[in-house]
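Most newcomers find our protein records easier to grasp once they have seen one. Each record describes a single protein and holds just a pair of labelled lines. A learned vocabulary of local backbone shapes supplies the integers on the structure line. Nothing more is needed to start thinking about how sequence determines fold. The record below serves as our worked example for the rest of this section.
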Amino acid sequence: MFSVLRARAGAAAVAIGAMSVLTVTAGPAQAAVNPANCQFSYNLSIGRVAADCWNPTQSGWQLQLTCSRFRNGSLYYARGPIVYGSGVSAAQCDAHTSEIAGVDIVNL
């Protein structure tokens, strides 16, 4: 009789342990950086943009510029360094051959 109770208790402990693992892995994803929490600075003479963002989590993000070439309008991206948490990410288009067509915060 005691071995049956031990087996049931052991099976219940395994089931509870599996459920707690599922609960941890199914938790909410890290928060994304909200562009409203960023202060942008522009130096258009050299095609540079910097984003100083407040991020209370340690989630990764980076500044991404969409650059448009003068000669044919083709687009390319210039990306700043990846930042984890709060900080500054800056990127630059080549001001001699292109202009800034878009500014985005990319959450990783």
Observations:
- Confidence is low (pLDDT under 50) at residues 1-29.
